[in-house]
Amino acid sequence: MGREAEERFEVEAPGLPELLVAFLNELISLADTKHLVFGDFRVRIDENPSGSCRLSARARGEPFDAARHRFTVLPKGATYTALAVGRQDGRWVAQCVIDV
Amino acid sequence: MDTDFREIEANVWELPTTDAMRVPGRIFASRDLIDAVDEKVREQLRNVASLPGIVTAAYAMPDAHWGYGFPIGGVAAFDPELGGIVSAGGVGFDISCGVRTYTTQLKAREISEKKETLAHDLYRTVPAGVGWGGAVRLSVDELDQVLLGGARWAVESGWGESSELERVEEHGCMRGADPSKVSRRAKERQLGELGTLGSGNHYLELQEVAEIFDAKAAAAFGLESGDLVVTIHCGSRGLGHQIGTDYMQRLLPAAAKYGIRLPDRELSCAPIRSSEGEDYLGAMRAGINCALANRQVIGGLVRRVFARHFPKAHLNLLYDVSHNTCKVERHAVEGRPRLLFVHRKGATRAFGPGHPDLPEEYRTVGQPVLIGGTMGTSSFVLAGTAESEARAFSSSCHGAGRLMSRTQAKGKWQGKALIRELSERGIIIKAHTTKGAAEEAPGAYKDVEEVAAVAESTGLSRRVARVLPIACIKG
């Protein structure tokens, strides 16, 4: 995966699970509008005492190339179905169903 | 078997009103279909039945399966006079995803020698699969005209004939669309996408009319046994997806603001009579017009391909139906006409004979209802019935309905083997990825024969013709 394309963005949400949905939806629409494929991410999450969260992201990737990027489906959007973000056995686990 | 469902008459099952439910749930299914219904469908019907202003019942069509918020195959009508809501989740991400079918004035046997060439040219000409680049490139201002005009815009731009518009729901143009309520991001996702099939379960299929059930309706629809027909299944592409995403988030705080308790966030909604609800309706109607224009443009591309190979063919639009919508319709409830906001998510509007919105030539037989099967099984043309209004606000099923997830399907079938097997049966599959074909394996869906038979036996619609696949271009 190349790194010649870079996008930086911020999203906010009332909680961590919603932040995951907002992050994924931002990636889906950036990929769709700018015709990019991402493969390298750096994110910083700040939680404030009220529980709301802000995510700052840098996503790197390359222009979409149908010959090399053999996806079977295009994601439409991230959903709230079975959404979960939490710690299990000392590791972070994030779960989100994507509509395709 | 789900013991919560009680069979109140043959193939009609009711989920009684309990707890927060305002109305019962009702599903149209044979015993086999109800046995296969996902547990989540019951939960989702209960949730929908608890939303403010819902009228009569929360319905699930014979092809129902687990969706986001609403079940796929879900129908629910809301009355603004009773504080009724409009739900972004009740319409879904692929706004106005739908099906259109063309008759061709050709018999299937007439293309048998050239079907590979024809399928290949359709595959080359109609953009499909994952990628970007449609038949039409638009500026944001031009896109606004698409969002206002729908299929009418496409016809005025040279993509078809004005006589076709009567055979598209809403006469080809959804009124009340408001492009100013559609985000710039949503519009940017669509600028190069008009005239594309997309991916997933979307397809373009050459089909042969294999059986006629209702000769009078078939004659009205221009169908005879052995005819070649062309069917297109796709939706509002990136624009619709982004409208769904935007308003799913925007309506969540709106629901809280108006004191609406949401049992599932995917039911994100606002009162019909609220600024948030009106904004969503304006954007969602723009999404419907996007889908209508998209299918109209693809129809134009298909015509160009036929003109190259079969100059004597004439593609006549049989009808264009939308699956994921919320529409304002007048329905009789307990003998009184009421103006209702009917959500259909993975369900087809099915107006019966005599409905004033139908083109004159279909007025005596009812609205065509186009049921997509799978690339290896039958699809059906049905017609709306007089009793469908009382059954489920003039609604019917939309397809076979998924039986297993895409991941399960990929684990069970191999794309290349599946394509070879279908080829041995004479069905050409043109797929951009073999994995994508495996996800759409016929066995991953319910038995469409049974779904169509139940739709008929319960009066939702009646079978007119069965069509069989000849070649399928998979998105």
Helix vs. strand class of chain B: alpha+beta
For the largest interface, the chains and their residue counts are: A-B, 26 and 29 residues
- The end-to-end distance of chain B, rounded to whole angstroms, is 35 Å
Q: How much β-strand is present in the residues of chain A? A: over 45%
User: Counting H and I runs of at least 4 residues, what is the number of helices of chain B?
Assistant: 14
Largest sheet of chain A: 3 strands, antiparallel
Please state roughly what percent of the residues of chain B sit in beta strands, choosing from under 5%, 5-15%, 15-25%, 25-35%, 35-45% or over 45%.
Answer: 25-35%
Structure summary, number of beta strands of chain A: 7
DSSP helix fraction of chain A: 10-25%
| Strand order across the largest sheet of chain A | 1-3-2
Would you report the number of β strands of chain B?
19
Oligomeric state of shown chains: heterodimer
Quick structural gist:
The complex is a heterodimer of chains A (about 100) and B (about 475). Chain A has one helix at about 15-35; strands spanning about 5-15, 35-45, 55-65, 75-80, 85-90, 90-95, 100.
